[in-house]
Each structure stands twice: as structure tokens, then as C-alpha cells.
Amino acid sequence: MARIIAPNKQYAGVSAGVPFTGGEGHTDNEYLIKWFHDHGYEVIEEPEAEPETDPGKQSGTVTENAADESSADKPAEETAVAPAQKKGRKKEG
After folding, report:
1. Domain boundaries, the chain
2. Residue 28's closest CA among 14, 40, 44, 41?
3. Helix ranges restricted to H, the chain
4. pLDDT tens across 12-55, in order?
5. Distances (CA, A) of 40 to 15, 77, 78
6. Which of 4, 17, 52, 66 has the most crowded Cβ, counting Cβ within 10 A?
């Protein structure tokens, strides 16, 4: 993806099929990137963002949430928790 900066920093509209707001547009079309560069626009190439992955799952290591994740797949009766006991003073008498 490339950021295209128009010579007019206030430009809002569509040029060569690319929408601009505040003088900035975005495209990944190589032909248009070259066209904008050749016509005096500033072109800033941005590296492709890689999808985030959970490194713990890829390497086979256990993550902090591993216990929570594994219990989500179990039926309710296996993950049920006993009700909490009431706390307070006992009545004398």
C-alpha cells in the first residue's frame, strides 16, 4: 500500500480513481503509484502488514491463557465451579 500526497495539501476528491481527503490518498495499484509519482505527487511506500499470530500457538509452548482456552472446549459439567459459601457472622442463640 502506498500513501499518495497531493501537491495541494487540502485536496479532497478523486484523482485517477483514488479518493483523497486532506491531500492524502492510498492505493496498492503499481501503475497508479507510478502515475502519481510522475505527476508530482509524493509517494510513500508502506510495507505490507503481516497478519498477527500468536507465537505461543505456533511454537507449541503454553501461553498464559492456555488453561482458559482449553476449558472453553469442555462441556459445562466439566468446568463447573462449586457455589461460593456465604461469608458473614453466624447468629448466636
Report:
1. 2-45
2. 44
3. 30-38, 55-59, 66-72, 76-79
4. 999 999 999 999 999 999 999 999 999 999 999 988 766 676 66
5. 13, 67, 66
6. 4
Residue with cell 491531500: 23
Rg (CA), the chain: 29
β-bridge partners, 26: 3
- The type of residue at 11 is Y
Neighbours of 23 (CB within 10 A): 16
CA-CA distance, 56 to 40, in Å (whole number)? 46
Q: Is the pLDDT of residue 5 over 80?
A: yes
User: CA–CA distance from 68 to each of 8, 52, 77, 78, 79 (Å)?
Assistant: 53, 20, 15, 13, 10
